[in-house]
Design a protein that fits this description.
Layout: E1 4-6, H1 18-25, H2 41-44, H3 58-75, E2 78-80, E3 93-97, H4 107-123, E4 128-132, H5 146-155, H6 165-174, E5 182-186, H7 193-205, E6 210-214, E7 221-223, E8 227-228, E9 233-239, E10 246-253, E11 259-267, E12 273-278, H8 282-285, E13 290-293, E14 302-304, E15 312-318, H9 333-339, E16 343-346, H10 353-362, E17 367-371, H11 378-389, E18 393-397, H12 400-403, E19 419-420, E20 431-436, E21 452-453, E22 455-456, H13 465-468, E23 469-473, E24 478-485, E25 488-493, H14 508-521, E26 538-542, E27 548-549, E28 574-577, E29 582-585, E30 606-609, E31 616-617, H15 619-640, H16 648-669, H17 675-688, E32 694-696, H18 701-721, E33 730-732, E34 744-748, H19 758-769, E35 773-777
Parallel strand pairs: 3-4, 3-5, 5-6, 6-30, 15-16, 15-17, 17-18, 18-25, 32-33, 32-34, 34-35
Antiparallel strand pairs: 1-2, 2-31, 7-9, 8-9, 9-12, 10-11, 10-13, 13-14, 19-22, 20-21, 20-23, 23-24, 24-25, 26-27, 26-28, 28-29
Helix pairs in contact: 1-3, 3-15, 4-5, 6-7, 10-11
């Protein structure tokens, strides 16, 4: 592969004409002579004489030959090309471009290389087919001209989802009849099983060489879903091909894009994982909507956060007496231990419900858990009901007090008393947990087989009981029921919060159920509390570079559990819902892997690195050289013709005349440099080089020194706290100096000084009318 190529090599044949051009260029017409015009002189020139043209100077001939050579070379289209820049094979060319999320950091190199390969194929009159790996499988693979393919390349952009290799393999097999003569695959640098299968399909569809370009030495960094704890929010990072130590900056921002915090992260040498920890107050942590790796420029480096990640306040209230609330017997012990890792617990200082309930509500509790609370006072009951209607979630646990209660803060009607399962007076055995409702937050949880219920409160059967049951026992009786109330919800566990009625509090399922209830409670918007069967429309989506963009026509609403949705053209990563409440769909999950592109792909595909430099078109430089040579040739012709030279005597006379006129004018008018003008000019130059604050010179040396020192301190404060960098203060005389140069003038009034003249005050008044400010300091006089 040569380092220099020509797009119009036939034009080089014109270089053979340079000797002919030289023959004609070495002759030049004789230099014109200057003659006076006597009429009789014409008679002497009537006779025709044979004249021989004079030869042009050798340097002028060389200049013109160089000009002709530069024009010929420029028209031949010379291009300097780095080694390895090829369009593989012969005949139809297949160009595969990876435009999934992993291609975003190197997108410019990928796109520029694809354009150059398509241009090379176009120069060789080879038809080209383009296949983008993140686009739908209905792409046309019919080879066409390079201009059409280049227009398609210009319209490509990285997608915020992974390359869809599996869907493209059938299209490749169907197009195998065309038997491409070569293929260029511009990869995103990731490998894996899907890449291997796609590589085999590409190799089987191409009858010639296949070259896969990959970014050598590039390092892709992604962010896994964050993990909240009691003291911090942690964002795990993962990088591919770990080698040397590396640093990254993780930024947290709110929904408006305002930065809440930045945390530097360091990858140790050879380590692929690191973690960013945001130790922020709960109020600030709950404002975080976006976590991103600064400068990564890919959707894989962004994690969006909704209410599921926000740390909530949970208020706990028990009906048990203080004397019986021993550590392992307290109804709140198991609840507090279960929710403490992912929520802030608030327990009132007063056991009186009339005092405790308002205290929990005013503390900003999203969830209030009542363990075996009986009837509430009417005003407290109404206060809790209003809080629930505004978006709060009330979780109640049964007990002997609740079994005999009659208030309205329960989702279903209850039978009076409780039901005992097992024991000497009951023929029924303890019942296991049997199912979770698919329409409840518990959907997807595994049903444990080690939970037994020995006692429960029973719901009154009616037409709404089935749809309000979130968890049921083996005999069909409900374990957990719930009902909406305004923007909030009422949830009832039909067993106690301790182990006296069931073994539920001892299981991990109890923790998962409470976690999902708290996540269900986060927010009062439609998206946050929507039914699982209701669609959630796209709100703000991510593009391939990780930036927010408006939803396109391809994006569809999400129905069901958003955690089970896979990202793709129908559901790009982003926020779904509305400004009042939204859910986040992220590209990267906790199981993400970043395998490198294989060094030896299937089918004998050769691997090459992206070119580090683009081909350099030499034609513009040659054209610029030709223009310069044309200008030099024109100057040379004018110089040889004498147009650039004045007669020596006339030049000397004109110079002497100009000097004489200048000297006589200066002597006759008596012009002398004025010291006053010099001082005025110096004052103006000093005043306009920077922005200066000014003070009035009073003639009192001590007072002027204080004024100057005060303005110097003020200038320093302005330089530290603003973008203004003022210069040193300048003293002015308002009766003589120009005041418009200064934005502020400080005038310390001296009681012993003479009053300013009316002319001086008129100058000061004019200065203030033009927008200036004067601070008169009477110093309490």
């Amino acid at each position: 592969m040569t380092a220099l190529a020509f797009t119009n090599i036939g034009m080089l044949l014109a270089l053979a004409a340079l000797p002919i051009i030289w023959y004609f260029l070495r002759l030049t017409p004789p230099k014109p002579r200057r003659e006076e015009f006597p009429p009789t002189r014409l008679l002497l020139e009537i006779a025709r004489k044979e004249e021989q043209p004079a030869r042009s100077p050798w340097w002028l001939t060389a200049l013109r030959l160089l000009l002709a050579a530069a024009v010929i070379l420029a028209l031949s289209g010379p291009v300097f090309k780095p080694t390895g820049e090829i369009a593989p094979g012969e005949g139809p060319l297949l160009v595969v471009v990876d435009n999934g999320w992993a291609a975003a950091p190197n997108w410019e190199a990928i796109l520029e290389s694809a354009r150059r390969i398509v241009d090379l194929a176009g120069e060789a009159d080879r038809p080209v087919a383009l296949l983008a790996s993140a686009e739908p499988s209905n792409q046309t693979l019919a080879p066409t001209d390079s201009d059409s393919v280049r227009r398609r390349l210009d319209a490509l952009a990285p997608r915020p989802w992974a390359s869809r290799y599996a869907g493209l393999i059938p299209a490749l097999k169907q197009a195998a009849a065309a038997r491409f003569g070569g293929a260029a695959w511009l990869t995103d640098g990731l490998g894996g099983g899907a890449v291997d299968a796609f590589a085999a399909a590409v190799a089987g569809s191409v009858g010639g060489p296949v070259v896969a370009y990959t970014e050598a030495g590039s390092e892709l960094i992604v962010m896994k879903p964050p993990v909240g704890s009691a003291d911090a929010l942690r964002a795990p990072l993962l990088r591919g091909a770990p080698a040397a130590a590396a640093a990254a900056l993780v930024r947290a921002s709110d929904v408006q894009g305002r930065i809440i915090g930045e945390v530097p992260v360091t990858f140790a040498a050879g380590e692929a994982a690191a973690e960013a920890e945001f130790a922020l107050p709960v109020e600030l942590r709950n404002e975080i909507v976006r976590l991103e790796i600064a400068g990564a420029a890919t959707a894989g480096a962004v994690q969006l956060i909704d209410d599921r990640w926000r740390r909530r306040r949970v208020g706990l209230l028990s009906g048990a007496s203080v004397e019986s609330a021993q550590p392992l017997l307290s109804p709140l012990y198991y609840i507090s231990r279960a929710v403490q890792p992912f929520a802030d617990i608030r327990q009132p200082r007063d056991a009186n419900a009339a005092v405790a309930v308002p205290e929990l509500i005013e503390a900003g509790s999203s969830v209030i858990v009542m363990a075996d609370i009986g009837n509430l006072a009417a005003d407290v009951e109404e206060q809790v009901a209003e809080w629930v209607r505004d978006g709060g979630v009330l979780v109640r646990f049964a007990g002997s007090r609740l079994a005999s209660a009659t208030d309205s803060l329960i989702p279903v009607g209850l039978r009076h008393g409780d039901r005992v399962l097992g024991g000497s007076l009951s023929w029924q055995t303890p019942q296991p947990l049997a199912s979770f409702s698919e329409a409840s937050p518990f959907a997807g949880l595994a049903v444990p087989d080690d939970i037994l219920v020995k006692r429960q409160v029973l719901a009154q059967p009616d037409g709404t009981l089935a749809e309000r049951t979130w968890a049921a026992l083996a005999d069909g009786t409900p374990l957990v029921t719930a009902a909406p109330s305004g923007k909030g919800s009422l949830i009832l566990f039909h067993v106690t919060a301790d182990t006296s009625w069931s073994s539920l509090p001892l299981s991990g399922t109890f923790v998962d159920m409470l976690r999902r209830i708290i996540a269900f409670s986060t927010g009062t918007g439609s998206a946050a509390k929507a039914d699982a069967t209701q669609p959630i429309a796209p709100y703000r989506l991510l593009d391939g570079f990780g930036a927010f963009t408006t939803p396109g026509p391809e994006a569809e609403p999400i129905v069901g559990d958003i955690a089970a949705i896979a990202t793709g053209p129908e559901h790009p990563p982003g926020l779904y819902g509305s400004e009042e409440g939204f859910r986040a769909l992220n590209l990267v999950d906790a199981n993400v892997e970043l395998p490198p592109f294989p060094g030896s792909p299937a089918g004998g595909i050769s691997v090459a690195a992206y070119p580090t430099a683009a081909p350099l078109a030499v034609a513009p430089w040659l054209i610029a050289l030709a223009v310069i040579l044309i200008a030099l040739d024109a100057l040379a012709v004018l110089w040889l013709a004498g147009a650039l030279r004045l007669p020596r005597r006339r030049a000397l006379a004109a110079t002497a005349l100009a000097l004489a006129v200048a000297l006589s004018t200066a002597a006759g008018t008596g012009i002398r440099p004025s010291r006053a003008d010099e001082a005025t000019d110096q004052f103006a130059l000093q005043a306009v080089d920077k922005t200066h604050l000014a003070y009035v010179i009073t003639g009192n040396a001590d007072l002027d020194a204080v004024s100057r020192a005060g303005l110097s301190g003020l200038s320093g404060v302005l330089a530290e706290r603003t973008a203004l960098e003022p210069g040193d203060p300048i003293g002015v005389d308002p009766a003589r100096d120009e005041l418009t140069f200064f934005p502020l003038i400080y005038w310390a009034v001296d009681a012993g000084a003479e009053l300013p003249t009316s002319a001086t005050m008129a100058r000061v008044d004019a200065y203030m009318r033009q927008g200036g400010s004067v601070l008169f300091d009477t110093r309490d006089q």
